[in-house]
């Protein structure tokens, strides 16, 4: 753990530094507010210990400016993600060719679901033909949306409809659900049904639009129904060729 100590009393700063290093911490020293702020901006510190009364720039001012810097960085990262999302939508709109290959959708869904505590899965082995990165983004967006609205649980099921030669993924949450009149609108770009969500707790309203665009680009469909309770998103994709692995019997 790396700690920045900002203290103008040289003796006290030395005592704190030696004490922390004796406990195994990595430390860095600054003796005035301006130097402390510069080091805080340039370094990757886990914590900052600073005196309130500092020469040049008070401890309170250091905290305020560092917080403003972090907020600006956060905004820049959000804009970068937004630009990437818009570029992905533009490419799907233009039907730009992407590399398609057999994708084990069951493994992809299991991987993304395992990272989320509320998710319960029922999956069968299923393969589709498509762009693995785009399909992973589709699944991630559906799970992200479910997490934002679920109260206690998200149920994810993957089945294979042999009669229709389709793979069906269902992502259901136990949240408030989606009014029937809004079930088409939620797939429109920049749509957020909950106006109370701000930019910190919600995205730009592109997640479901991207998910549907990816589904369509894979000759599939994405819709939402009443989950009773909550909402249930249903993704249908053409089934790919399942390559079964056979094992020769060993010696008896």
UniProtKB/TrEMBL annotation:
Modified residues annotated as 4-aspartylphosphate in this record: 51
Keywords from the named record: Kinase, Phosphoprotein, Transferase, Two-component regulatory system
Domain Response regulatory, chain residue ranges per copy: 2-151
Record GO terms (molecular function): phosphorelay sensor kinase activity
All residue ranges annotated as the Histidine kinase domain in the record: 75-241
Domain of life: Bacteria
Keyword NAD: no
Designated name of the protein: histidine kinase
Species annotation: Spongiactinospora gelatinilytica
Native organism taxonomy: Bacteria, Bacillati, Actinomycetota, Actinomycetes, Streptosporangiales
């Amino acid at each position: 753990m790396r700690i920045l100590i900002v203290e103008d009393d040289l003796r006290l700063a030395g005592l704190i530094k030696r004490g922390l290093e004796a406990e195994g911490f990595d430390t860095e020293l600054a003796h005035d507010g301006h130097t402390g702020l510069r080091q805080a901006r340039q370094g990757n510190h886990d914590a900052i210990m600073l005196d309130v009364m500092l020469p040049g720039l008070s401890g309170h001012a250091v905290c305020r400016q560092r917080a403003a810097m972090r907020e600006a960085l956060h905004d820049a990262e959000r804009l970068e993600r937004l630009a990437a999302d818009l570029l992905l939508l533009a490419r799907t709109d233009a039907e730009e060719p992407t590399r398609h290959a057999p994708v084990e959708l069951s493994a992809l869904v299991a991987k993304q679901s395992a990272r989320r505590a509320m998710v319960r899965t029922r999956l069968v082995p299923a393969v589709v033909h498509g762009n693995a990165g785009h399909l992973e983004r589709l699944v991630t967006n559906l799970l992200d949306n479910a997490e934002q609205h679920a109260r206690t649980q998200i149920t994810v099921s993957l089945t294979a409809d042999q009669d229709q030669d389709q793979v069906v993924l269902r992502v259901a949450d136990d949240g408030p659900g989606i009014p029937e009149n809004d079930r088409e609108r939620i797939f429109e770009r920049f749509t957020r049904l909950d106006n109370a969500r701000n930019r910190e707790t919600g995205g730009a309203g592109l997640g479901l639009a991207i998910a549907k665009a990816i589904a369509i680009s894979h000759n599939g469909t994405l819709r939402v129904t009443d989950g009773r309770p909550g909402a249930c998103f249903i993704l249908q994709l053409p089934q790919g060729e399942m390559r079964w692995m056979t094992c020769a019997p060993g010696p008896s």
